[in-house]
């Protein structure tokens, strides 16, 4: 009699029993054995063993590539082959009876002589190789240190635009000489300088200068006294600890910024922290949801493939000379934020071979590889279509489960610990959290509609920002969203990286989707389906009623937050950066001054303004604040609303304000900002348990106008002269203050600027559409100062 010991089999759903006959062999486990009186009867599945072999081969290939890239990056700016050149050179001089080591080789030779195991010739060879290797390492260290010293110079940023001094040209040549050839993504990391700690008095003085136009005389006098007392007494003590950290840590800001600003936040991520990226503004290459998902997912995976191989080129400024830090790319994929009661953590895996897809309240696990290779776009489309065709209903509590990631963090953390720590719930949650990324097949149709541009773009923005509050997994590094009509977008978690990093991925995805992968005439992905690929697997849940109550509470919290968001997203067609540059001014400064003018007309007052700037000129740098509301910008705005001021006077004040803004931006980029330094001093004060009235007041000031420019980093991917309709919509974020505005903008090509404005309905002071009208008028009013009428703008277009 046979006694079954182990038999594992993946049971197909009732509907798919007939169609799965071809795939059953793939879904069976590699072996089955039974115990008989005659011994053990072992039966093998050759197809399953083949899949295991190919999967293992894929893993070993990735390990080898990581090892190879680690070696190449580790010796940069030299190369592994340069070791051979140095050693051969040393050996050649030795055989020519020339000692390049000044006696060091002879000392190595004498040391080896004590072993007694080597012949004279062997000792000479080994001595030469050891000295050559040491010389090679010394040269690498010297080149790397020299490059770090060179990259610590930032004088080029403060030079007048379009003019480059001879000293800067020489400096650029030196940087290129020491930068090596064909750098990989992380090649420059060890050569980037550390973020410097500004002097306390400098930061305090810059702070006082920034708040002067926002305070009454009495308030400013009181704040000046607080600031000066801090700069003389407590400030230097806190600064000592901060200096110590800057010498020890790679970056004195980034780890504390990630922990205290992001991970320790106990409020909802949705709206408050996460941000979104939109699809192309006008173009939908296919209206088939599964096909768009197939190409989009494949393009994302191609980017991940390049990232794993470090084939993505590092971002370089100043004519491909000055590198930016690439550290934020490390956690783009296979990453999830894990909730905790006091603080969250970031879970990152080196690899993940599946994604999780959400559709109509159900979760599906989709494998990304078959026969040891990445699934092709048509094969991914096939898998997505299988999900769309699946008629099964959500399990109890499953449909709204993702609302836990949209609500408060503490209930989610407690619920996760209580109900998702074992059994099928743990397995399914692991599948979500360990997926390469999360995909939502949205049931709505979104995107720009020419017959109703305002309502359509506002709906699109709100859908990407929060959706139905239970159909995006807000903890994942990013959720890829595909709508019913083929439009797509992305919702990204903020703690692991900033928007330009996600933007770099998104630019690649949109261009690869349209210009490289493309679609067949019937709208499907190119290529053939593959019936041998196993069906996506439904994730199984057993969610008790107590947990469902927590889900409902989180959903209510999220719905209240989402319904309060007032969004206005619109393309500004009147002119773009091309005409602004004709005015010989910075496009970013132009838009920022327009925002100041619009806000004054909207509110009748000035406010503390946040503009995000990057500090990635330094290792592990993230962001710094540019305080855009300055005395100079206020003087310009007041002149613009004063009918007695002449155009000449307004232009003069505009140029002064524009130059001031550019100077503030450059200071922020080069480590001389205000807010990150004060933030870190505040953290040190908390560690030391000392109270600072100055720091407490500074960090409690609300940012009622929070702004950010989305940069276009890969212009070469979109040839807008040939394809003028393939313009990006950019992305946006929720309001930072309850009674303020959040404004994101992207300068697309030469003739378009896309704006994304957010506020809250609950605030009687704000109205996103009203602010949008003021912003359009402000842009046109400033351009009119330069004598460009609407007709001349059309000619420029």
TrEMBL record:
Q: What is its EC number?
A: 2.3.1.21
Keyword Transmembrane helix listed: yes
Gene symbol?
CPT1A
Q: Which domain of life is it from?
A: Eukaryota
Bilayer-crossing regions: 125-147
Question: Record keywords: rRNA processing included?
Answer: no
Primary subcellular site in the record, as a coarse category: mitochondrion
Subcellular location per the Swiss-Prot or TrEMBL entry: Mitochondrion outer membrane
Q: Under what name is this protein listed?
A: carnitine O-palmitoyltransferase
Q: Which family does it belong to?
A: Belongs to the carnitine/choline acetyltransferase family.
The record's Gene Ontology cellular component field reads: mitochondrial outer membrane
Substrates-to-products reaction catalysed: (R)-carnitine + hexadecanoyl-CoA = O-hexadecanoyl-(R)-carnitine + CoA
Instruction: Set out the biological process GO terms recorded for this chain's protein.
Output: carnitine metabolic process; fatty acid metabolic process; long-chain fatty acid transport
Which PROSITE patterns did the record assign? ACYLTRANSF_C_1 (PS00439), ACYLTRANSF_C_2 (PS00440)
Cross-referenced SUPFAM superfamilies:
CoA-dependent acyltransferases
Source species: Equus asinus (Donkey)
GO function terms (MF aspect): carnitine O-palmitoyltransferase activity
Choline/carnitine acyltransferase domain spans which residues?
195-777
- Please list the residue ranges annotated as the Carnitine O-palmitoyltransferase N-terminal domain: 22-68
């Amino acid at each position: 009699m046979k006694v079954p010991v182990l038999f594992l089999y993946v049971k197909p759903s009732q509907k798919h029993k007939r169609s799965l006959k071809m795939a059953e062999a793939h879904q069976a486990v590699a072996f089955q054995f039974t115990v008989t009186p005659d011994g053990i009867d072992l039966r093998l599945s050759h197809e399953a063993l083949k899949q295991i072999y190919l999967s293992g081969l894929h893993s070993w290939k990735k390990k080898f590539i990581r090892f190879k890239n680690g070696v190449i990056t580790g010796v940069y700016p030299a190369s592994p082959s340069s070791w051979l050149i140095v050693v051969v050179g040393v050996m050649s001089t030795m055989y020519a009876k020339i000692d390049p080591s000044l006696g060091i080789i002879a000392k190595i030779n004498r040391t080896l002589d004590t072993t007694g195991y080597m012949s004279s010739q062997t000792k000479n060879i080994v001595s030469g190789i050891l000295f050559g290797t040491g010389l090679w390492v010394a040269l690498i260290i010297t080149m790397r240190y020299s490059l770090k010293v060179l990259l610590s110079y930032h004088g080029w940023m403060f030079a007048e635009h379009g003019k480059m001094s001879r000293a800067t040209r020489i400096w650029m040549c030196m940087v290129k000489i020491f930068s090596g050839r064909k750098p990989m993504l992380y090649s420059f990391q060890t050569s980037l300088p550390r973020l410097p700690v500004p002097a306390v008095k400098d930061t305090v003085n810059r702070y006082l200068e920034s708040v002067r136009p926002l305070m009454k005389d009495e308030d400013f006098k009181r704040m000046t006294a607080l600031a000066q007392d801090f700069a003389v007494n407590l400030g230097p003590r806190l600064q000592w600890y901060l200096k110590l950290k800057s010498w020890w840590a790679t970056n004195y800001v980034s780890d504390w910024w990630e922990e205290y600003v992001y991970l320790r936040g106990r409020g909802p991520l949705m709206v408050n922290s996460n941000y979104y990226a939109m699809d192309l503004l006008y173009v939908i290459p296919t209206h088939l949801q599964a096909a768009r998902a197939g190409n989009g997912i494949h393009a994302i995976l191609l980017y991940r493939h390049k990232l794993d191989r470090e084939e993505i080129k590092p971002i370089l400024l100043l004519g491909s000379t000055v590198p930016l830090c690439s550290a934020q790319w490390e956690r783009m994929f296979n990453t999830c934020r894990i909730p905790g009661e006091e603080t969250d953590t970031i879970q990152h895996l080196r690899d993940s071979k599946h994604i999780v897809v959400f559709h109509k309240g159900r979760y599906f696990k989709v494998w990304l590889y078959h026969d040891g290779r990445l699934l092709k776009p048509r094969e991914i489309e096939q898998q997505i279509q299988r999900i769309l065709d699946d008629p099964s209903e959500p399990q109890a509590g499953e449909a709204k489960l993702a609302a836990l990631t949209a609500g408060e963090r503490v209930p989610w953390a407690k619920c996760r610990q209580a109900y998702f720590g074992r059994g099928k719930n743990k397995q399914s949650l692991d599948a979500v959290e360990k997926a390469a990324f999360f995909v939502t097949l949205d049931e709505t149709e979104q995107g720009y509609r020419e017959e109703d541009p305002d309502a359509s773009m506002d709906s699109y923005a709100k859908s990407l920002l929060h959706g139905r509050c239970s159909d995006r997994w807000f903890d994942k590094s990013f959720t890829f969203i595909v709508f019913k009509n083929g439009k797509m977008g992305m919702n990204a978690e903020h703690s692991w990286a900033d928007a330009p990093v996600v933007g770099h991925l998104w630019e690649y995805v949109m261009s690869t989707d349209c210009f490289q992968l493309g679609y067949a005439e019937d709208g499907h992905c190119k290529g053939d389906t593959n019936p041998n690929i196993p069906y996506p697997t439904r994730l199984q849940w057993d969610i008790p009623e107590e947990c469902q109550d927590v889900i409902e509470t989180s959903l209510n919290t999220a719905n209240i937050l989402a319904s309060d968001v007032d969004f206005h997203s619109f393309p500004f067609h009147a002119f773009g950066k091309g005409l602004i540059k004709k005015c010989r001014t910075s496009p970013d400064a132009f838009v920022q001054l327009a925002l100041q003018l619009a806000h004054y007309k909207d509110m009748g007052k000035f406010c503390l303004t946040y503009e995000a700037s990057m500090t990635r000129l330094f290792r592990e740098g993230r962001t710094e604040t540019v305080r855009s509301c300055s005395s100079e910008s206020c003087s310009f705005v007041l002149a613009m609303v004063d009918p007695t001021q002449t155009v000449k006077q307004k232009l003069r004040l505009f140029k002064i304000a524009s130059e001031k803004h550019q100077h503030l931006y450059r200071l922020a980029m080069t480590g001389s900002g205000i807010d990150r330094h004060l933030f870190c001093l505040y953290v040190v004060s908390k560690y030391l348990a000392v109270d600072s009235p100055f720091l407490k007041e500074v960090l409690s000031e609300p940012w009622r106008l929070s702004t950010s420019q989305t940069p276009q980093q890969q212009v070469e991917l979109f040839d807008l002269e040939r394809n003028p309709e393939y313009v990006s919509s950019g992305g946006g974020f929720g309001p930072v203050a309850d009674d303020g505005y959040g404004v994101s903008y992207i300068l697309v090509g030469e003739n378009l600027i896309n704006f994304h404005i957010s506020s809250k309905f609950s605030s009687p002071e704000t109205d996103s559409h009203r602010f949008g009208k003021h912003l359009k008028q402000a842009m046109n009013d400033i351009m009119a100062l330069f004598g460009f009428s609407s007709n001349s703008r059309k000619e420029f277009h």
